Amino acid sequence: MCGIIGIIGKDQVADRLVDGLRRMEYRGYDSAGVCTVKDGALVRRRAEGKLANLVKELAAHPAPGTVGIAHTRWATHGAPTTSNAHPHATGEVALVHNGIIENFRPLREALIARGRRFESETDTEVVAHLISEQVEAGKSPQEAVEAVLPQLRGAFALAIAFRQHPDLLIGARLGSPLVVGYGEGETYLGSDALALAPLTQRIAYLEEGDWVVITRDGVRIFDRENKEVERDVTTSGVTAAAVEKGPYRHFMQKEIFEQPTVVAQTLSSYIRPLEQTVALPQMDFDLDGIDRITIVACGTSFYAGMVAKYWFETFARVPVDIDVASEFRYRDPVLQPGGLALFISQSGETADTLAALRHCKAQGQTIAVVVNVPTSSMAREADLLLPTHAGPEIGVASTKAFTCQLAVLAALAAHLALRKGKLSAAEEREIVRHLIEAPAALNAALAHDEEIAAMAHLVAPARDVLYLGRGPDYPLALEGALKLKEISYIHAEGYASGEMKHGPIALIDEAVPVIVLAPSGPLFEKTVSNMQEVMARGGKIVLISDAEGLAEAGEGSMATIEMPRVHPLIAPLVYAVPVQLLAYHVAVAKGTDVDQPRNLAKSVTVE
Ligand code: HGA
Protein backbone atom coordinates (compact mmCIF):
# COMPACT_ATOMS: atom_id res chain seq x y z
CA MET A 1 0.00 0.00 0.00
CA CYS A 2 0.99 3.65 0.13
CA GLY A 3 4.68 4.27 0.58
CA ILE A 4 5.98 7.23 2.56
CA ILE A 5 9.45 8.71 2.61
CA GLY A 6 10.77 11.98 4.04
CA ILE A 7 14.34 13.30 4.03
CA ILE A 8 16.08 16.10 5.85
CA GLY A 9 19.22 15.97 3.75
CA LYS A 10 22.59 17.59 3.25
CA ASP A 11 22.08 17.72 -0.53
CA GLN A 12 19.19 17.92 -2.95
CA VAL A 13 16.56 15.33 -2.07
CA ALA A 14 14.11 15.01 -4.99
CA ASP A 15 16.00 12.19 -6.75
CA ARG A 16 16.60 10.33 -3.52
CA LEU A 17 12.95 10.63 -2.59
CA VAL A 18 12.00 9.09 -5.93
CA ASP A 19 14.58 6.32 -5.35
CA GLY A 20 12.90 5.60 -2.03
CA LEU A 21 9.52 5.45 -3.76
CA ARG A 22 10.99 3.01 -6.26
CA ARG A 23 11.89 0.65 -3.44
CA MET A 24 8.27 0.77 -2.29
CA GLU A 25 6.76 0.28 -5.75
CA TYR A 26 6.17 -3.37 -4.94
CA ARG A 27 3.51 -2.37 -2.42
CA GLY A 28 1.23 -1.37 -5.29
CA TYR A 29 0.18 2.20 -6.09
CA ASP A 30 -1.64 4.24 -8.68
CA SER A 31 -0.12 7.73 -8.43
CA ALA A 32 2.89 9.38 -6.84
CA GLY A 33 4.18 12.74 -5.71
CA VAL A 34 6.97 14.74 -4.11
CA CYS A 35 7.09 18.02 -2.20
CA THR A 36 10.25 19.87 -1.24
CA VAL A 37 10.69 22.99 0.88
CA LYS A 38 12.73 25.67 -0.84
CA ASP A 39 13.17 29.38 -0.08
CA GLY A 40 9.97 29.63 1.93
CA ALA A 41 7.88 27.77 -0.66
CA LEU A 42 6.40 24.27 -0.94
CA VAL A 43 7.41 22.83 -4.31
CA ARG A 44 4.96 20.08 -5.19
CA ARG A 45 5.09 17.67 -8.16
CA ARG A 46 2.58 14.87 -8.69
CA ALA A 47 1.60 12.43 -11.41
CA GLU A 48 -0.95 9.72 -12.10
CA GLY A 49 0.16 6.17 -12.81
CA LYS A 50 3.68 4.81 -12.61
CA LEU A 51 6.73 6.53 -11.17
CA ALA A 52 8.08 7.12 -14.66
CA ASN A 53 5.38 9.80 -15.03
CA LEU A 54 6.54 11.55 -11.88
CA VAL A 55 10.15 11.34 -13.05
CA LYS A 56 9.10 12.99 -16.32
CA GLU A 57 7.23 15.69 -14.42
CA LEU A 58 10.30 16.33 -12.25
CA ALA A 59 12.53 16.52 -15.32
CA ALA A 60 10.24 19.16 -16.80
CA HIS A 61 9.67 20.99 -13.50
CA PRO A 62 12.42 20.19 -10.98
CA ALA A 63 11.76 20.30 -7.23
CA PRO A 64 14.89 21.78 -5.67
CA GLY A 65 15.50 21.62 -1.92
CA THR A 66 17.26 19.60 0.74
CA VAL A 67 14.12 18.74 2.70
CA GLY A 68 11.15 16.88 1.27
CA ILE A 69 8.45 14.26 1.51
CA ALA A 70 7.16 11.80 -1.09
CA HIS A 71 4.43 9.21 -1.51
CA THR A 72 3.10 6.42 -3.65
CA ARG A 73 -0.68 6.32 -3.32
CA TRP A 74 -3.02 3.34 -3.41
CA ALA A 75 -6.33 5.14 -3.62
CA THR A 76 -8.98 4.50 -1.00
CA HIS A 77 -10.94 7.77 -1.19
CA GLY A 78 -11.10 9.39 -4.60
CA ALA A 79 -9.94 8.20 -8.02
CA PRO A 80 -6.22 7.76 -8.76
CA THR A 81 -5.88 11.18 -10.41
CA THR A 82 -3.16 13.79 -10.14
CA SER A 83 -5.31 16.07 -8.00
CA ASN A 84 -5.95 13.24 -5.53
CA ALA A 85 -2.27 12.24 -5.46
CA HIS A 86 -0.28 13.11 -2.34
CA PRO A 87 1.33 15.30 -1.05
CA HIS A 88 -1.74 17.35 -0.21
CA ALA A 89 -0.95 20.95 0.55
CA THR A 90 -2.26 24.29 1.65
CA GLY A 91 -0.24 27.51 1.57
CA GLU A 92 1.56 26.49 4.77
CA VAL A 93 1.64 22.73 5.02
CA ALA A 94 2.21 19.70 2.78
CA LEU A 95 1.69 16.13 3.90
CA VAL A 96 1.55 12.52 2.83
CA HIS A 97 -0.65 9.92 4.46
CA ASN A 98 -1.02 6.16 4.60
CA GLY A 99 -4.32 4.92 6.01
CA ILE A 100 -7.87 6.20 6.22
CA ILE A 101 -9.21 9.16 8.20
CA GLU A 102 -12.57 7.63 9.06
CA ASN A 103 -14.15 10.84 10.35
CA PHE A 104 -13.04 12.90 7.37
CA ARG A 105 -16.63 13.79 6.34
CA PRO A 106 -17.62 15.85 9.41
CA LEU A 107 -14.12 17.33 9.53
CA ARG A 108 -14.35 18.34 5.89
CA GLU A 109 -17.81 19.84 6.27
CA ALA A 110 -16.68 21.86 9.27
CA LEU A 111 -13.58 23.05 7.41
CA ILE A 112 -15.67 24.09 4.38
CA ALA A 113 -18.04 25.93 6.71
CA ARG A 114 -15.00 27.78 8.04
CA GLY A 115 -14.15 28.83 4.49
CA ARG A 116 -11.45 26.27 3.52
CA ARG A 117 -11.36 25.20 -0.12
CA PHE A 118 -10.62 21.61 -1.05
CA GLU A 119 -8.90 20.53 -4.22
CA SER A 120 -9.14 16.73 -3.87
CA GLU A 121 -11.68 14.02 -3.02
CA THR A 122 -9.38 12.36 -0.52
CA ASP A 123 -9.88 11.83 3.19
CA THR A 124 -6.26 12.97 3.64
CA GLU A 125 -6.69 16.59 2.63
CA VAL A 126 -8.62 17.44 5.82
CA VAL A 127 -5.44 16.83 7.83
CA ALA A 128 -3.50 19.36 5.77
CA HIS A 129 -6.23 21.96 6.34
CA LEU A 130 -6.57 21.25 10.06
CA ILE A 131 -2.83 21.65 10.64
CA SER A 132 -2.72 24.67 8.38
CA GLU A 133 -5.48 26.38 10.36
CA GLN A 134 -3.43 26.01 13.52
CA VAL A 135 -0.26 27.31 11.86
CA GLU A 136 -2.12 30.25 10.37
CA ALA A 137 -3.45 31.00 13.87
CA GLY A 138 0.15 31.39 15.03
CA LYS A 139 0.88 27.99 16.51
CA SER A 140 4.29 26.37 16.00
CA PRO A 141 4.33 23.24 13.77
CA GLN A 142 4.74 21.07 16.85
CA GLU A 143 1.81 22.71 18.65
CA ALA A 144 -0.30 22.50 15.49
CA VAL A 145 0.27 18.76 15.07
CA GLU A 146 -0.29 18.15 18.77
CA ALA A 147 -3.66 19.93 18.52
CA VAL A 148 -4.81 18.07 15.40
CA LEU A 149 -3.81 14.44 16.04
CA PRO A 150 -6.48 13.83 18.70
CA GLN A 151 -9.16 14.96 16.22
CA LEU A 152 -8.33 12.17 13.76
CA ARG A 153 -10.10 8.80 13.84
CA GLY A 154 -9.04 5.82 11.77
CA ALA A 155 -5.52 4.89 10.79
CA PHE A 156 -2.64 6.98 9.69
CA ALA A 157 1.04 7.32 9.10
CA LEU A 158 1.80 10.95 8.25
CA ALA A 159 4.85 12.89 7.12
CA ILE A 160 4.36 16.65 7.24
CA ALA A 161 6.46 19.52 5.83
CA PHE A 162 6.05 23.22 6.67
CA ARG A 163 6.62 26.11 4.28
CA GLN A 164 8.25 28.37 6.85
CA HIS A 165 10.43 25.67 8.42
CA PRO A 166 12.95 24.43 5.89
CA ASP A 167 14.71 22.14 8.40
CA LEU A 168 11.77 20.33 9.90
CA LEU A 169 9.54 17.34 9.26
CA ILE A 170 6.93 15.91 11.60
CA GLY A 171 5.78 12.28 11.42
CA ALA A 172 2.96 10.49 13.23
CA ARG A 173 1.60 6.97 13.35
CA LEU A 174 -1.56 5.29 14.49
CA GLY A 175 -2.44 1.98 12.88
CA SER A 176 -0.10 2.38 9.91
CA PRO A 177 3.65 1.83 10.23
CA LEU A 178 6.29 4.58 10.21
CA VAL A 179 9.99 4.44 11.01
CA VAL A 180 12.67 7.05 11.68
CA GLY A 181 16.06 6.59 10.02
CA TYR A 182 19.27 8.06 11.44
CA GLY A 183 21.92 8.95 8.85
CA GLU A 184 25.20 10.88 8.83
CA GLY A 185 24.00 14.45 9.33
CA GLU A 186 20.68 13.46 7.77
CA THR A 187 17.39 12.16 9.14
CA TYR A 188 14.64 10.21 7.43
CA LEU A 189 11.07 9.05 7.76
CA GLY A 190 9.86 5.96 5.93
CA SER A 191 7.07 3.41 5.79
CA ASP A 192 9.57 0.67 6.52
CA ALA A 193 13.27 -0.10 6.79
CA LEU A 194 13.34 -1.26 3.16
CA ALA A 195 12.36 2.22 1.95
CA LEU A 196 15.41 3.62 3.71
CA ALA A 197 17.75 0.68 2.98
CA PRO A 198 20.48 2.49 0.97
CA LEU A 199 20.22 5.64 3.13
CA THR A 200 20.65 4.08 6.56
CA GLN A 201 20.34 0.86 8.50
CA ARG A 202 19.84 2.69 11.82
CA ILE A 203 16.13 2.62 12.42
CA ALA A 204 13.72 3.46 15.24
CA TYR A 205 10.23 1.96 14.93
CA LEU A 206 7.53 4.34 16.10
CA GLU A 207 4.94 2.80 18.39
CA GLU A 208 1.18 3.20 18.19
CA GLY A 209 0.21 6.82 18.82
CA ASP A 210 3.79 8.10 18.59
CA TRP A 211 4.64 11.26 16.72
CA VAL A 212 8.07 12.60 15.93
CA VAL A 213 9.70 15.94 15.25
CA ILE A 214 12.83 15.65 13.14
CA THR A 215 15.23 18.47 12.45
CA ARG A 216 18.79 18.67 11.25
CA ASP A 217 19.86 18.67 14.90
CA GLY A 218 18.00 15.63 16.09
CA VAL A 219 14.91 13.61 16.67
CA ARG A 220 12.29 14.05 19.40
CA ILE A 221 9.66 11.36 19.79
CA PHE A 222 6.40 11.83 21.72
CA ASP A 223 3.84 9.23 22.73
CA ARG A 224 0.08 9.58 22.40
CA GLU A 225 -0.04 11.48 25.70
CA ASN A 226 2.51 13.92 24.22
CA LYS A 227 5.14 12.76 26.69
CA GLU A 228 8.65 12.75 25.21
CA VAL A 229 9.88 9.15 24.92
CA GLU A 230 12.93 7.20 23.75
CA ARG A 231 12.55 4.47 21.14
CA ASP A 232 15.37 2.00 20.54
CA VAL A 233 17.51 2.58 17.49
CA THR A 234 18.15 -0.83 15.91
CA THR A 235 20.21 -1.98 12.95
CA SER A 236 17.72 -3.13 10.34
CA GLY A 237 19.92 -5.58 8.42
CA VAL A 238 17.77 -4.97 5.32
CA THR A 239 20.01 -4.23 2.37
CA ALA A 240 19.12 -2.68 -0.94
CA ALA A 241 20.21 -5.96 -2.61
CA ALA A 242 17.10 -7.62 -1.20
CA VAL A 243 15.12 -5.57 -3.67
CA GLU A 244 17.01 -6.71 -6.79
CA LYS A 245 15.56 -9.15 -9.31
CA GLY A 246 18.90 -10.78 -10.11
CA PRO A 247 18.69 -13.01 -13.19
CA TYR A 248 14.90 -13.33 -12.97
CA ARG A 249 12.37 -11.56 -15.13
CA HIS A 250 9.99 -10.86 -12.24
CA PHE A 251 10.21 -10.70 -8.44
CA MET A 252 7.44 -13.27 -8.24
CA GLN A 253 9.47 -15.71 -10.33
CA LYS A 254 12.55 -15.06 -8.17
CA GLU A 255 10.53 -15.64 -5.02
CA ILE A 256 8.99 -18.87 -6.31
CA PHE A 257 12.50 -20.17 -6.99
CA GLU A 258 13.81 -19.03 -3.61
CA GLN A 259 11.41 -21.35 -1.82
CA PRO A 260 13.72 -24.34 -1.25
CA THR A 261 16.28 -22.00 0.34
CA VAL A 262 13.95 -19.92 2.46
CA VAL A 263 11.86 -22.87 3.62
CA ALA A 264 15.11 -24.58 4.72
CA GLN A 265 16.17 -21.35 6.41
CA THR A 266 12.84 -21.11 8.21
CA LEU A 267 12.81 -24.76 9.24
CA SER A 268 16.30 -24.46 10.67
CA SER A 269 14.80 -22.27 13.43
CA TYR A 270 12.07 -24.78 14.25
CA ILE A 271 13.68 -28.20 14.08
CA ARG A 272 16.86 -29.82 15.36
CA PRO A 273 17.85 -32.03 12.45
CA LEU A 274 20.39 -34.12 14.37
CA GLU A 275 18.11 -34.91 17.26
CA GLN A 276 15.14 -35.02 14.86
CA THR A 277 13.04 -32.97 17.23
CA VAL A 278 10.89 -29.87 16.91
CA ALA A 279 12.21 -26.76 18.67
CA LEU A 280 10.04 -23.72 19.27
CA PRO A 281 11.05 -20.36 20.74
CA GLN A 282 10.72 -19.94 24.52
CA MET A 283 7.20 -19.08 25.56
CA ASP A 284 6.09 -17.79 28.90
CA PHE A 285 2.66 -19.34 28.84
CA ASP A 286 1.55 -22.90 29.21
CA LEU A 287 1.01 -24.39 25.76
CA ASP A 288 -0.23 -27.68 27.26
CA GLY A 289 -3.21 -25.81 28.68
CA ILE A 290 -4.41 -24.60 25.26
CA ASP A 291 -7.69 -26.31 24.41
CA ARG A 292 -8.88 -24.20 21.53
CA ILE A 293 -7.17 -22.26 18.77
CA THR A 294 -8.63 -19.35 16.81
CA ILE A 295 -6.79 -18.63 13.56
CA VAL A 296 -7.29 -15.26 11.88
CA ALA A 297 -5.67 -14.07 8.65
CA CYS A 298 -6.38 -12.66 5.18
CA GLY A 299 -5.79 -13.86 1.62
CA THR A 300 -2.98 -16.32 1.09
CA SER A 301 -2.11 -16.30 4.81
CA PHE A 302 -5.70 -17.38 5.50
CA TYR A 303 -5.18 -20.41 3.27
CA ALA A 304 -2.00 -21.28 5.18
CA GLY A 305 -4.19 -21.12 8.29
CA MET A 306 -6.73 -23.47 6.70
CA VAL A 307 -3.99 -26.04 6.09
CA ALA A 308 -2.83 -25.59 9.69
CA LYS A 309 -6.35 -26.26 10.97
CA TYR A 310 -6.06 -29.78 9.54
CA TRP A 311 -2.69 -30.24 11.20
CA PHE A 312 -3.70 -28.90 14.64
CA GLU A 313 -6.79 -31.05 14.66
CA THR A 314 -5.21 -34.20 13.22
CA PHE A 315 -1.97 -34.18 15.22
CA ALA A 316 -2.82 -32.33 18.42
CA ARG A 317 -6.58 -33.01 18.51
CA VAL A 318 -7.14 -29.37 19.44
CA PRO A 319 -10.26 -27.82 17.88
CA VAL A 320 -9.63 -24.85 15.63
CA ASP A 321 -11.86 -21.97 14.50
CA ILE A 322 -10.66 -20.02 11.53
CA ASP A 323 -11.92 -16.79 10.06
CA VAL A 324 -10.90 -14.07 7.66
CA ALA A 325 -9.81 -11.04 9.64
CA SER A 326 -12.21 -8.59 8.01
CA GLU A 327 -15.19 -10.68 9.19
CA PHE A 328 -13.87 -11.92 12.50
CA ARG A 329 -14.02 -8.75 14.53
CA TYR A 330 -17.45 -7.71 13.43
CA ARG A 331 -19.24 -10.97 14.25
CA ASP A 332 -18.47 -10.66 17.96
CA PRO A 333 -16.80 -14.07 18.12
CA VAL A 334 -17.15 -16.25 21.20
CA LEU A 335 -13.64 -16.77 22.54
CA GLN A 336 -13.04 -19.47 25.08
CA PRO A 337 -11.03 -18.29 28.11
CA GLY A 338 -7.50 -19.61 27.94
CA GLY A 339 -7.59 -19.95 24.16
CA LEU A 340 -4.73 -19.32 21.77
CA ALA A 341 -5.40 -16.79 19.01
CA LEU A 342 -3.04 -17.28 16.09
CA PHE A 343 -2.52 -14.56 13.48
CA ILE A 344 -0.74 -15.09 10.18
CA SER A 345 0.55 -12.23 8.03
CA GLN A 346 3.50 -11.68 5.72
CA SER A 347 3.97 -8.02 6.65
CA GLY A 348 2.71 -8.17 10.23
CA GLU A 349 0.92 -4.89 9.48
CA THR A 350 -2.25 -6.06 7.68
CA ALA A 351 -4.85 -3.70 9.14
CA ASP A 352 -7.71 -6.20 9.41
CA THR A 353 -5.53 -8.86 11.03
CA LEU A 354 -3.93 -6.37 13.41
CA ALA A 355 -7.37 -5.11 14.51
CA ALA A 356 -8.48 -8.72 15.12
CA LEU A 357 -5.30 -9.36 17.13
CA ARG A 358 -6.01 -6.39 19.36
CA HIS A 359 -9.60 -7.52 19.80
CA CYS A 360 -8.44 -10.98 20.94
CA LYS A 361 -5.81 -9.49 23.21
CA ALA A 362 -8.44 -7.33 24.88
CA GLN A 363 -10.49 -10.51 25.42
CA GLY A 364 -7.60 -12.16 27.26
CA GLN A 365 -6.53 -14.62 24.56
CA THR A 366 -2.89 -15.65 24.32
CA ILE A 367 -1.55 -14.19 21.10
CA ALA A 368 0.73 -16.06 18.70
CA VAL A 369 1.80 -14.60 15.36
CA VAL A 370 3.44 -16.07 12.27
CA VAL A 371 4.94 -13.07 10.46
CA ASN A 372 7.75 -12.40 8.02
CA VAL A 373 8.72 -9.02 9.44
CA PRO A 374 9.95 -9.47 13.02
CA THR A 375 9.85 -5.73 13.73
CA SER A 376 6.22 -5.40 12.65
CA SER A 377 3.32 -4.29 14.84
CA MET A 378 1.98 -7.85 15.14
CA ALA A 379 5.39 -9.17 16.14
CA ARG A 380 5.70 -6.55 18.82
CA GLU A 381 2.24 -7.16 20.25
CA ALA A 382 2.42 -10.97 20.40
CA ASP A 383 2.99 -13.29 23.34
CA LEU A 384 4.60 -15.79 20.99
CA LEU A 385 6.45 -14.62 17.89
CA LEU A 386 6.99 -17.29 15.24
CA PRO A 387 8.95 -15.60 12.45
CA THR A 388 9.19 -16.94 8.94
CA HIS A 389 12.58 -16.32 7.37
CA ALA A 390 11.45 -15.77 3.80
CA GLY A 391 13.36 -12.48 3.35
CA PRO A 392 11.62 -9.44 1.84
CA GLU A 393 8.73 -10.50 -0.40
CA ILE A 394 8.37 -7.95 -3.18
CA GLY A 395 5.92 -9.60 -5.63
CA VAL A 396 2.41 -8.55 -4.67
CA ALA A 397 1.20 -12.13 -5.10
CA SER A 398 2.53 -13.96 -2.07
CA THR A 399 4.52 -17.13 -2.75
CA LYS A 400 7.54 -17.81 -0.57
CA ALA A 401 5.88 -16.29 2.50
CA PHE A 402 3.11 -18.90 2.12
CA THR A 403 5.36 -21.96 2.05
CA CYS A 404 7.42 -20.58 4.94
CA GLN A 405 4.22 -20.02 6.93
CA LEU A 406 3.28 -23.64 6.27
CA ALA A 407 6.70 -24.81 7.48
CA VAL A 408 6.31 -22.88 10.76
CA LEU A 409 2.72 -24.01 11.26
CA ALA A 410 3.63 -27.68 10.71
CA ALA A 411 6.34 -27.38 13.37
CA LEU A 412 3.92 -25.64 15.75
CA ALA A 413 1.28 -28.34 15.22
CA ALA A 414 3.83 -31.08 15.90
CA HIS A 415 5.08 -29.29 19.00
CA LEU A 416 1.56 -28.81 20.34
CA ALA A 417 0.76 -32.47 19.64
CA LEU A 418 3.83 -33.49 21.57
CA ARG A 419 2.98 -31.30 24.53
CA LYS A 420 -0.57 -32.62 24.51
CA GLY A 421 0.73 -36.18 24.61
CA LYS A 422 -0.78 -36.97 21.21
CA LEU A 423 2.53 -37.61 19.49
CA SER A 424 5.17 -40.13 20.48
CA ALA A 425 8.88 -39.34 20.18
CA ALA A 426 9.04 -41.75 17.22
CA GLU A 427 6.18 -39.93 15.48
CA GLU A 428 7.89 -36.61 16.15
CA ARG A 429 11.07 -37.95 14.53
CA GLU A 430 9.04 -39.05 11.52
CA ILE A 431 7.42 -35.63 11.13
CA VAL A 432 10.80 -33.91 11.40
CA ARG A 433 12.23 -36.28 8.77
CA HIS A 434 9.45 -35.31 6.37
CA LEU A 435 9.92 -31.61 7.06
CA ILE A 436 13.64 -31.96 6.37
CA GLU A 437 12.74 -33.44 2.98
CA ALA A 438 10.59 -30.43 2.06
CA PRO A 439 13.31 -28.20 0.49
CA ALA A 440 14.48 -31.02 -1.80
CA ALA A 441 10.89 -31.80 -2.75
CA LEU A 442 10.31 -28.12 -3.53
CA ASN A 443 13.36 -28.24 -5.80
CA ALA A 444 12.00 -31.30 -7.55
CA ALA A 445 8.68 -29.49 -8.06
CA LEU A 446 10.48 -26.44 -9.50
CA ALA A 447 12.20 -28.69 -12.04
CA HIS A 448 8.84 -28.82 -13.87
CA ASP A 449 8.92 -25.10 -14.58
CA GLU A 450 9.49 -25.39 -18.34
CA GLU A 451 6.81 -28.00 -18.74
CA ILE A 452 4.32 -25.75 -16.90
CA ALA A 453 5.39 -22.78 -19.03
CA ALA A 454 4.74 -24.87 -22.15
CA MET A 455 1.18 -25.66 -21.10
CA ALA A 456 0.23 -22.13 -20.00
CA HIS A 457 -1.39 -21.51 -23.40
CA LEU A 458 -4.04 -24.12 -22.51
CA VAL A 459 -5.25 -22.00 -19.60
CA ALA A 460 -4.48 -18.46 -20.80
CA PRO A 461 -7.53 -18.12 -23.11
CA ALA A 462 -10.00 -19.31 -20.44
CA ARG A 463 -12.52 -16.93 -18.91
CA ASP A 464 -13.11 -19.16 -15.89
CA VAL A 465 -10.95 -21.80 -14.24
CA LEU A 466 -11.82 -24.18 -11.40
CA TYR A 467 -9.36 -25.67 -8.92
CA LEU A 468 -10.21 -28.78 -6.92
CA GLY A 469 -8.53 -30.32 -3.88
CA ARG A 470 -9.40 -32.33 -0.81
CA GLY A 471 -8.32 -32.31 2.81
CA PRO A 472 -5.23 -30.16 3.40
CA ASP A 473 -4.96 -29.75 -0.37
CA TYR A 474 -8.35 -28.02 -0.54
CA PRO A 475 -6.83 -24.73 0.71
CA LEU A 476 -4.22 -25.19 -2.05
CA ALA A 477 -7.06 -25.22 -4.59
CA LEU A 478 -8.24 -21.92 -3.08
CA GLU A 479 -4.71 -20.55 -3.18
CA GLY A 480 -4.22 -21.68 -6.80
CA ALA A 481 -7.41 -19.88 -7.82
CA LEU A 482 -6.40 -16.76 -5.91
CA LYS A 483 -2.94 -16.66 -7.56
CA LEU A 484 -4.47 -16.99 -11.03
CA LYS A 485 -7.04 -14.25 -10.35
CA GLU A 486 -4.47 -11.91 -8.85
CA ILE A 487 -1.95 -11.86 -11.64
CA SER A 488 -3.68 -13.09 -14.81
CA TYR A 489 -7.12 -11.53 -14.14
CA ILE A 490 -8.81 -14.79 -15.13
CA HIS A 491 -11.81 -15.58 -12.97
CA ALA A 492 -10.99 -18.67 -10.94
CA GLU A 493 -12.55 -20.48 -8.00
CA GLY A 494 -11.25 -23.16 -5.71
CA TYR A 495 -13.55 -25.88 -4.39
CA ALA A 496 -13.34 -28.83 -2.10
CA SER A 497 -13.54 -31.58 -4.73
CA GLY A 498 -16.51 -33.18 -2.99
CA GLU A 499 -18.45 -29.91 -3.24
CA MET A 500 -18.28 -29.91 -7.01
CA LYS A 501 -21.50 -31.85 -7.42
CA HIS A 502 -23.37 -29.43 -5.13
CA GLY A 503 -23.32 -26.61 -7.63
CA PRO A 504 -20.14 -25.72 -9.50
CA ILE A 505 -20.46 -28.77 -11.75
CA ALA A 506 -23.11 -26.77 -13.61
CA LEU A 507 -20.28 -24.58 -14.92
CA ILE A 508 -18.40 -27.40 -16.58
CA ASP A 509 -17.90 -27.30 -20.32
CA GLU A 510 -14.91 -27.50 -22.70
CA ALA A 511 -14.04 -23.86 -22.11
CA VAL A 512 -13.51 -24.18 -18.34
CA PRO A 513 -10.20 -25.82 -17.42
CA VAL A 514 -10.34 -27.71 -14.13
CA ILE A 515 -7.08 -27.96 -12.22
CA VAL A 516 -7.10 -30.98 -9.91
CA LEU A 517 -4.62 -31.25 -7.03
CA ALA A 518 -4.43 -34.89 -6.08
CA PRO A 519 -1.29 -36.21 -4.42
CA SER A 520 -1.22 -39.97 -3.79
CA GLY A 521 -2.48 -40.67 -0.33
CA PRO A 522 -5.58 -41.52 1.61
CA LEU A 523 -7.79 -38.99 -0.22
CA PHE A 524 -6.55 -39.71 -3.75
CA GLU A 525 -9.32 -42.12 -4.84
CA LYS A 526 -12.06 -39.77 -3.67
CA THR A 527 -10.59 -36.78 -5.52
CA VAL A 528 -10.16 -38.85 -8.66
CA SER A 529 -13.85 -39.86 -8.52
CA ASN A 530 -14.79 -36.17 -8.48
CA MET A 531 -12.43 -35.61 -11.38
CA GLN A 532 -14.17 -38.37 -13.33
CA GLU A 533 -17.49 -36.62 -12.74
CA VAL A 534 -16.02 -33.55 -14.42
CA MET A 535 -14.57 -35.55 -17.32
CA ALA A 536 -17.89 -37.31 -17.87
CA ARG A 537 -19.37 -33.87 -18.61
CA GLY A 538 -16.75 -32.86 -21.13
CA GLY A 539 -14.60 -30.94 -18.63
CA LYS A 540 -10.92 -30.37 -19.47
CA ILE A 541 -8.67 -31.54 -16.66
CA VAL A 542 -5.15 -30.53 -15.69
CA LEU A 543 -4.14 -33.17 -13.18
CA ILE A 544 -1.35 -32.36 -10.72
CA SER A 545 -0.19 -35.51 -8.98
CA ASP A 546 2.86 -37.72 -8.50
CA ALA A 547 4.01 -40.43 -10.93
CA GLU A 548 1.80 -43.08 -9.25
CA GLY A 549 -1.23 -40.81 -9.30
CA LEU A 550 -0.72 -39.83 -12.92
CA ALA A 551 -0.24 -43.47 -13.96
CA GLU A 552 -3.46 -44.41 -12.25
CA ALA A 553 -5.69 -41.49 -13.22
CA GLY A 554 -3.92 -39.26 -15.73
CA GLU A 555 -5.52 -40.75 -18.83
CA GLY A 556 -7.96 -38.46 -20.55
CA SER A 557 -6.58 -35.29 -18.94
CA MET A 558 -5.90 -32.26 -21.13
CA ALA A 559 -2.51 -31.98 -19.39
CA THR A 560 -0.70 -33.41 -16.38
CA ILE A 561 1.96 -31.98 -14.09
CA GLU A 562 4.13 -34.45 -12.23
CA MET A 563 5.14 -33.73 -8.66
CA PRO A 564 7.59 -35.72 -6.54
CA ARG A 565 5.98 -38.36 -4.35
CA VAL A 566 5.85 -36.85 -0.87
CA HIS A 567 4.32 -37.55 2.50
CA PRO A 568 0.82 -35.98 2.86
CA LEU A 569 2.20 -33.67 5.57
CA ILE A 570 4.44 -31.78 3.17
CA ALA A 571 2.19 -32.10 0.11
CA PRO A 572 0.63 -28.63 0.69
CA LEU A 573 4.09 -27.05 0.58
CA VAL A 574 5.12 -28.91 -2.54
CA TYR A 575 1.82 -28.49 -4.41
CA ALA A 576 2.02 -24.74 -3.84
CA VAL A 577 4.79 -24.66 -6.47
CA PRO A 578 2.84 -25.87 -9.54
CA VAL A 579 -0.13 -23.60 -8.80
CA GLN A 580 2.21 -20.63 -8.38
CA LEU A 581 4.11 -21.48 -11.57
CA LEU A 582 0.92 -22.05 -13.54
CA ALA A 583 -0.48 -18.64 -12.49
CA TYR A 584 2.89 -17.03 -13.23
CA HIS A 585 3.25 -18.47 -16.74
CA VAL A 586 -0.38 -17.81 -17.65
CA ALA A 587 0.09 -14.17 -16.57
CA VAL A 588 3.30 -13.91 -18.61
CA ALA A 589 1.50 -15.43 -21.60
CA LYS A 590 -1.25 -12.82 -21.19
CA GLY A 591 1.28 -10.01 -20.78
CA THR A 592 -0.05 -8.69 -17.46
CA ASP A 593 2.03 -6.79 -14.90
CA VAL A 594 3.04 -9.79 -12.79
CA ASP A 595 4.75 -7.97 -9.93
CA GLN A 596 2.30 -5.10 -9.68
CA PRO A 597 -1.08 -6.45 -10.76
CA ARG A 598 -3.79 -3.87 -11.23
CA ASN A 599 -5.69 -2.67 -8.15
CA LEU A 600 -3.70 -4.82 -5.73
CA ALA A 601 -1.42 -3.69 -2.94
CA LYS A 602 1.12 -5.44 -0.77
CA SER A 603 0.98 -4.97 3.00
CA VAL A 604 -2.69 -3.99 3.16
CA THR A 605 -2.66 -1.33 5.84
CA VAL A 606 -6.24 -0.13 5.45
CA GLU A 607 -9.39 -1.94 6.62
N1 HGA B 1 -6.80 7.38 2.16
C1 HGA B 1 -5.72 7.95 1.44
C2 HGA B 1 -4.45 7.11 1.56
C3 HGA B 1 -4.69 5.73 1.06
C4 HGA B 1 -3.68 4.70 1.54
O1 HGA B 1 -3.09 4.75 2.60
N2 HGA B 1 -3.44 3.64 0.77
O2 HGA B 1 -2.52 2.72 1.18
C5 HGA B 1 -6.08 8.18 -0.01
O3 HGA B 1 -7.02 7.58 -0.54
O4 HGA B 1 -5.40 8.98 -0.64
From TrEMBL:
GO biological process terms on file: amino sugar biosynthetic process; carbohydrate metabolic process; fructose 6-phosphate metabolic process; protein N-linked glycosylation; UDP-N-acetylglucosamine metabolic process
Single GO MF descriptor: glutamine-fructose-6-phosphate transaminase (isomerizing) activity
Active site: C2 (nucleophile), K602 (for fru-6p isomerization activity)
CDD domains: GFAT, SIS_GlmS_GlmD_1, SIS_GlmS_GlmD_2
InterPro entries: GATase_2_dom (IPR017932), GFAT (IPR005855), GFAT_N (IPR047084), GlmS/AgaS_SIS (IPR035466), GlmS/FrlB_SIS (IPR035490), Ntn_hydrolases_N (IPR029055), SIS_dom (IPR001347), SIS_dom_sf (IPR046348)
Domain Glutamine amidotransferase type-2 per the UniProt entry, residue ranges: 2-217
Enzyme class per UniProt: transferase
Record domain SIS: where: 283-422, 455-597
EC number: 2.6.1.16
Location of the protein in the cell: Cytoplasm
Reaction equations catalysed: D-fructose 6-phosphate + L-glutamine = D-glucosamine 6-phosphate + L-glutamate
HAMAP family in the cross-refs: GlmS
Known role: Catalyzes the first step in hexosamine metabolism, converting fructose-6P into glucosamine-6P using glutamine as a nitrogen source.
Quaternary structure and partners: Homodimer.
Annotated protein name in UniProt: Glutamine--fructose-6-phosphate aminotransferase [isomerizing]
Organism, as annotated: Sphingopyxis panaciterrulae
